[in-house]
Amino acid sequence: MDDRESIFHTRSSILDVKGRIMEEVKATSFEGSLKELEEAVERLESGNLPLGDALKYFEAGLKASNVCRERLEEAKQRVDVLIKESGGGLNLTPFEEDDASDEEAPF
Domains of the chain (ranges plus CATH)? Predict the structure, then answer.
């Protein structure tokens, strides 16, 4: 392998790693995880999946849901800190959930 091929190979490898890292970041961001969750739900709701595939999408949906929950909790904590740092002039009030959260799960 000459120097040009070596440089090309190295650059190609770096781009591959960068691409994988970007996909991981996307998957662990709130927006990326929400999209994954929506896709998993859509697939599961189609009802046209073999059991193994349904379990795969169910697992992916649970993981994405957990990431979303973690990112929302992190955001809430940051907001709480910002409010405290602002001199405490603002009152913290607990978040009230919609009545929709009281609906029964479909399973």
Answer: 9-87 (1.10.287.1040)
Helices (H), the chain: 3-28, 30-46, 51-85
**Distance between CA atoms of 59 and 49, rounded to whole angstroms?**
14
pLDDT of residue 87: 75
Spatial separation of the C-alpha atoms in residues 22 and 28, rounded to whole Å: 10
Give the Cα separation of 43 and 37 in Å (integer): 10
Give the whole-angstrom CA distance, residue 82 versus residue 92: 11
| Residue 85 or 32, more confident | 32
Could you tell me the pLDDT band of residue 62, with boundaries at 50, 70 and 90?
very high
Q: Which residue has the tokens 């994988």?
A: 20
